[in-house]
Design a protein that fits this description.
With about 120 residues, the protein is an all-beta fold. The chain has no helices and eleven strands. Strands 2, 4, 5, 6, 9, 10 and 11 form a seven-stranded mixed beta sheet that branches. The termini are far apart.
C-alpha cells in the first residue's frame, strides 16, 4: 500500500511562487525510490494535463508551458516529491495532482495511486 499527503497549494499573485509537496508512504515490501513520479494539473473545463515528471534515476522533464518556471525534484530519503513553481501565471490556476509509482521486489514499477489534489489559484 502507498499513501500520499499533498501540501503547498494556495492563492498567490501573478509572478509569485509556491512549493508543492507530495509525501508518499509505502508499506513494507513496496519500493518507491527507483520508480517515477510526476505532477499533473486540471483546470475547470479542461482536460487533465501533464506538467512534469522525474524518473527513478533523477531525469526530469517538463511540459512546454512550464519550462523555465517550474522545477521538479524528489527526496528519496523522505519519499517526497516537490514542485517549485516560480513566475506563476493566471493560466497556472488548476488543481494539481501528484502521481507516484511503486514496485515490489522482482517486479517493474506501476502506478500506485494519485494524490487527492491541491488547489493552486493565481490572481492578476
Amino acid at each position: 500500500q502507498v499513501q500520499l499527503v499533498e501540501s503547498g497549494g494556495g492563492s498567490v499573485q501573478a509572478g509569485g511562487s509556491l512549493l508543492l509537496s507530495c509525501a508518499a508512504s509505502a508499506a513494507s515490501g513496496y519500493i518507491l525510490s527507483d520508480c517515477g513520479m510526476g505532477w499533473y494539473r486540471q483546470a475547470p473545463g479542461k482536460a487533465r494535463e501533464w506538467v512534469s515528471s522525474v524518473s527513478g534515476v533523477g531525469t526530469t522533464t517538463y511540459a512546454d508551458s512550464v519550462k523555465g518556471r517550474f522545477t521538479i525534484s524528489r527526496d528519496n530519503s523522505k519519499n517526497t516529491l516537490y514542485l517549485q513553481m516560480n513566475s506563476l501565471k493566471t493560466e497556472d490556476t488548476a488543481i494539481y495532482y501528484c502521481q507516484v509509482s511503486s514496485r515490489r521486489r522482482a517486479t517493474s514499477c506501476v502506478v500506485a495511486l494519485w494524490g487527492q489534489g491541491t488547489q493552486v489559484t493565481v490572481s492578476s
